[in-house]
Amino acid sequence: MIGIDLGSKRIGVAASDASGMLASPVTVIHRSGNERKDHQAIAEIVAEYEAEAVVVGLPISLSGELGPAARAAADEANRLASVVGVPVHTHDERLTTKTAEAALMQNKMKAQARRRIIDQVAAAVMLQSWLDASKMRDSR
């Protein structure tokens, strides 16, 4: 699985291991200003990792509402699905950036270094949440 954290300037990318148990940060794609080009970069990662699906984080508000950012992410996820050639799912990404930031700070990483990787770490946190939720659904 490939996890995607869509941002206006950067796209964080994470991947799961082959067993679908553990998510890890992969890279950050800097927005080019051309969504199709950005989606093609994601498609190349999907092909490289032989991913079976893509999970896009939805920035749902703390109240649980789908605000403008979540609707925009869902719309982009739908457009991405026509490019990557695998199913695209969405998953709640509430607090993933805060969780990622806290983990990086705990490792005493300097602010400049954190900014370079925060998006891919947030994507890994979101993807891990999706993987864990999938295991729970499958065990029922």
Count of spatially separate domains: 1
Q: Radius of gyration from the CA trace? A: 14 Å
User: From N to C, what is the helix and strand string?
Assistant: EEEHEHEHH
Q: Please indicate the percent range of residues in DSSP E strands (runs of 2 or more).
A: 15-25%
Q: Considering the protein shown, what is the CATH homologous superfamily?
A: YqgF/RNase H-like domain
Query: Structural class of the helices, strands and pairings?
Result: alpha/beta
The appropriate CATH architecture is 2-Layer Sandwich
Q: End-to-end span in angstroms?
A: 21 Å
The main β sheet shows up as: 5 strands, mixed
Low-pLDDT parts are none
Total strands: 5
Net shape? globular
CATH top level assignment: Alpha Beta
* Strand line-up across the major sheet: 3-2-1-4-5
Helicity, as a percent range: 40-55%
Mean pLDDT figure: 89
Determine the CATH topology: Nucleotidyltransferase, domain 5
Structural write-up:
It is a single chain. This protein is α/β, with parallel strands linked by helices. It has a single domain, classed as Nucleotidyltransferase, domain 5 (2-Layer Sandwich). Helices cover 50% and strands 21% of the residues. The chain contains four helices and five strands. The chain has helices spanning 35-48, 68-84, 96-106, 111-138; strands at 2-6, 10-16, 23-30, 54-58, 88-92. The chain has a five-stranded mixed beta sheet with strand order 3-2-1-4-5, with helices on both faces. The mean pLDDT is 89.
Core attributes:
21% strand, 5 strands, Nucleotidyltransferase, domain 5, 4 helices, 140 residues, 5-stranded mixed β-sheet, alpha/beta
